[in-house]
Specification:
Blueprint: H1 4-9, E1 12-18, E2 23-24, H2 25-30, H3 35-44, E3 45-49, E4 52-53, E5 59-60, E6 65-71, E7 86-90, E8 94-99, H4 116-123, E9 130-131, E10 140-146, H5 149-157, E11 163-171, E12 178-181, E13 184-186, E14 192-194, E15 202-211, E16 223-230, H6 237-244, H7 262-267, E17 284-292, E18 299-303, H8 306-312
Length: about 325
Amino acid sequence: MLGKDKIQRKNGRETTFAIEKDCLLRDFLRQRYSGRRIHFLRQGGCMFADGEEVTVNARLKAGQKLTLIFTENEEFAYAPKDLGIKIVYEDEDVAVVFKPAGVASMPVAPYFDENLLNGLAFLRPGTVFRVVTRLDKYTSGLVLVAKNALSHSLLNENSDKTRKYYTALAYGNVSAPLEINAPIKSSDGKKRIVGEDGKNAKTLVFESSPFSFSGEKISSYNCSLLKIRTFTGRTHQIRVHLAFAGHPLVGDELYFSPELNSKIQACVQTQSGARIPTDGGQLLCCSGIAFVHPTTGKELSFEIDGKEELLKRLPSAVK
């Protein structure tokens, strides 16, 4: 038997229930939690009935106090590193952070020691973060992260209620509104393409304004500053959709291919075909995010100046 002092020493999110009628614990859980969350509870948490640890096969009696604790797994430990991450908002369950361009969102090769989670470990030692909304390495902006397994699970289950807004710099005169409904599929590993047998994807450019550069070498470029909302979350979605529409993102070497796409070639007003120089990668920023808080159920929204962020990435000679 585990006493109440044992429960208090557990690390994690604790939820308590007063049992109203006799039932099996597994049935009680199934009525309130998804299979994914029950899996989290069984693998990384613990369950107590009146202070005694129980399994999902336990029979609960009316009047008992049920305590569920979703504990954190020690394997989620990342070496702290100052990567320029900034915390925009934080509470005990979630955080909204700013990720600079050039920082990977996830610990995948070859970025095991230089990713968003390393940067958060530097800012909040000992806190376990889980990434909810990912961004490409060279896409800067707002990222939603969870601070416990339960919040992470809830946010993923309600991902359809999360809205993301972007600011981008694209080639050509883009007319808004521009809605792009085109399925996306994998091509040659890293690259994605539009294909009928791909997954559905929807992007809306809801605002566009002309953008000009200074400097003799690039004054002839014809570009647009865009405000975008995504309705799905496919890999490289905005980059693929805008290139497909003939307006690739400035700095995007992966999807800027004039030789293969006459639409793209037509929207670049230059004879040399040279790119506008950037600090590396596409000029794309997640400048707004809205989501339903996993605990309070209230919608929270956050916004940054996407245009200012993109201008920081352009050499001073071309701004």
